[in-house]
Amino acid sequence: MKKVLLSCLAFLAIVVSLIILPFFLPVPESAQSANNIGLPWQIELDEAGQTRVFGLSPGVSTLNDAIARLGEDMELAIMVAANIPTGQEAKDAALEGYYNQIALDFVQARLVLTLDAPPEMIAAMLSRSVRGEYMRNGSRKYSLHPDDATLAATLPLVAFTLVPNARLDAETITLRFGPPAAIVSMGESMQHYLYPDKGLDIALDSKGKNVLQYVAPAEFEERIMRPLRPET
For 169-193, how does the pLDDT look when each residue is reduced to its tens digit (9 = 90+)? Predict the structure, then answer.
């Protein structure tokens, strides 16, 4: 029985190492040239303080730019948070482009692109929506009218949200992204590793998915820090 248990533990250790190990290994030149999209920690910063990741700049690049860079296999929809009353959807909604699976060299992940759409634009798009459905978590998803989809493709992207298939840990984050400017704990299981100069928030959840959110550094306070502060 003891030998069986040890064998199971050894097998589990191998599986875990195969999932996490790619984040520790240096990036081979062949991998870099095979896929020029870029890796999550390859964040460029220009003299004006604007960042660029995956070949896209939050706050500058449009959805059309993302499609040209990442491909057309994307779902575009308005997402409405759970428990929002009918008729008030636009007050807590986001226009998003969603890649269910994307390959960033050896990193596999889901990617959500949030578009710069004000509430009045979202409300108008909702009124013309061709279909709506409830999601498992209680949120709602609304498909766009074709004319609105054409308009959405020209809008800037204000945030990129990446959910890697591989789980991260504190050591991996520091190794790949460098020491964070601050770490903010939320509840019992969540820690946010904050990189204001890179416009990056890495949410490390010991009980769930790890999430990387990229915004323009100039909007880091508004889009990242303000939601993290407790309401007063």
Answer: 999 999 999 999 999 999 888 999 9
